[in-house]
Each structure stands twice: as C-alpha cells, then as structure tokens.
Amino acid sequence: MSGKDGKGGKVGRTSRIGSKWRSVVARALVFLSALAVLPVLPVLAQNDPRLVEAIRQAQEGRGDSARTKIRRLLAATSPTDTLYPQIIYAQAMVASDANEMRRQLQRVAVEYSSSSWADDALLRLVQLDYASGNLDGAARHLERIRLDYPDSPLLPQTSYWAARTYFDQKTPELACRWIADGLARSRGNIELENQLGYLDQRCAAVRADLAARSPVDSEAGAPAGGTDTAALPAETPDTSAPPAPEPTPPTSTPEPVPAAKTPPVPAPAVSKPAGPARFRVQITAVRASATADALAAKLTRQGLVPVVVQEGGLYKVRVGDYTTRQEAVAAVPELKAKLGGSPFVVAEP
User: Fold this and answer.
1) Same domain, 130 and 167
2) Is the pTM of this model over 0.70?
3) Exposure of 239 by Cβ count < 10 A (0-12 exposed, 13-18 middle, 19+ buried)?
C-alpha cells in the first residue's frame, strides 16, 4: 500500500510540474508572438554563422544548447571586438525570459550605443515595453531612435510601433506624424505599407482637425500661402488717404483761416504686431517631463537652444527663436536632416 501511495504521490508531483511547464511555455509563446508583428525582424540580420546556428537551435526548441553556445562564444571574444555587441544581441534573442532579454538589450543600447546593433536593441525594447503595457517606456525608446539614429534603416518598422504606442497614449497627432514618415520611408515594403496604411485611416480625422484650426494656432505648419502677413496691411491706407486741400489765394484783406478748416494730412498707416513675434520649431512632444528634459539636454549638447513647453498634458520640446515664420520654416530642413523625425513650425504668443 505504501508503495502505491508513493507512486501516486510521484505521479501527482510529475503532473503538477508538467502543468507548470506548460504554463511557462504558453506564456513564452504569447510573448514571442507579440514580437513577431514586424514583417522584417532585426534577428534576420545576424551574419556570423555561429550565431545563425545558435538562433536556429533556439527556434527549433533547443534553447539551452543555443544559450550555451553563445555564452562560450562571448567568453572567447574581446569586448572591443566589433562582433561583441552582436553576440550580446543574439544572447537576448535566445533568452529564457523577458527580463533576461531586456537586460541584454539594454547592454547593447547603453554600452555599445555606437555599434550597428544599438538601434536594433532599442526597437526590441520598444516592442517589449509595448507588449507589457509600458507605453511611456516605449515612447522614450522611440524618441531615442529618432534622435540618435535618424538614418537607421529600421525607422520604417519603428514608425509602426510608434503609431500604435502614441494612439494608445491618446496622442494621435504624434502617431500620424510617425505614420507619414514611415510611409515615405517604406517604399517597396508592401506588407509594411499595408500595415501603416491601415493605421493611417485613423489620421483622416486628425488632419481634418488640424485643417480646421486657425493658421497661427495650428501646429501643423505654416498657414495657407506660407507667408508672414504681418506687414501686408501697411500699404492699403496710403491709397485712400485724402489729399491736402489747395491753399486759398490771398485777398486784399487776408484773414487767418481757422485751424478747423485745414484738415491735417493723416500719417501713413504702419502695421504693428500685437506683441513680439516668436516662432519656434517643435522637435517632439512626450508625456514625461524627465524625458523632455533629457532630450533638451541632448539638443543643447548639439549646439541648439531648446525650450520645453507644457501644453495639454504633454511636454513639447522646441528649438530656435525666430521673428518671422519664414525664418523658422527655412530652418526646418536643416533640423530635419540633423535630428530626423518631422519637425514643424509653431507660433508662440
């Protein structure tokens, strides 16, 4: 009887362990499926045959063998070798859990930020944060990709995750700007264009709202016509001003003409702005003040003069201080080339 009880207890423990293992596997599958949305994944860029083989083993369910192989390769490689960050990235791809994956990705993004794998790591961190519901974290990584890696070939894929993140954050204007930039960069990638095009359907209402705003208050860009109209009314009053009356010929007994009978010649009208004109170029808008301050500090190190404006629950990072809209518009192409993204002109009171 005792033998039977022992066997039954062992079977029960085995059943519980099996159930726990199935639960872990199920969570892992859900997690991995959340990262498989993009049509092109950075893991496909592995070019070392040893890493390619390790990734293949992990995909076939031999994760322990893959992790062992990568650990050995990491131990045999110098941290100064250009292969080193790629090995760490591959180590993240075969990690047994999300925390380990995040730790390795952060190593690549922080310790090897100048490597060609840093933007890949940041995009994976965006996906991890989005999948876990950490939208502020995803937004921080998105802005770092945009500012630090403006020429990254991953920006089209990044725009897809940025759109989803900012739509969920209830900031559709930011989402639609990312979508527009992603569509412009994703020519030829039909699957990604379809995904962005589907999300872009939500931008019709956003564009209509921007178009309905006044030209000065709208943050969509320059007003209709793209000109600064502050000085245009100055010429109109000159054509309608009454000419000075001809002087009366003197008589034999001239009398002084009362001043009231000689209307003064009105001075030409001069256009005066209601207040000091100020136009800036907005670089981004984020929800966290710490993120805005960090971006402002980075822009300062790049020789720009940023300001942070809090509006509508967002912290908006802007640069420049221009007296006319034309000056600000002229500065946009250079800022876009330097910082990437979609900078645009705003008017401040």
Assistant:
1) no
2) no
3) exposed
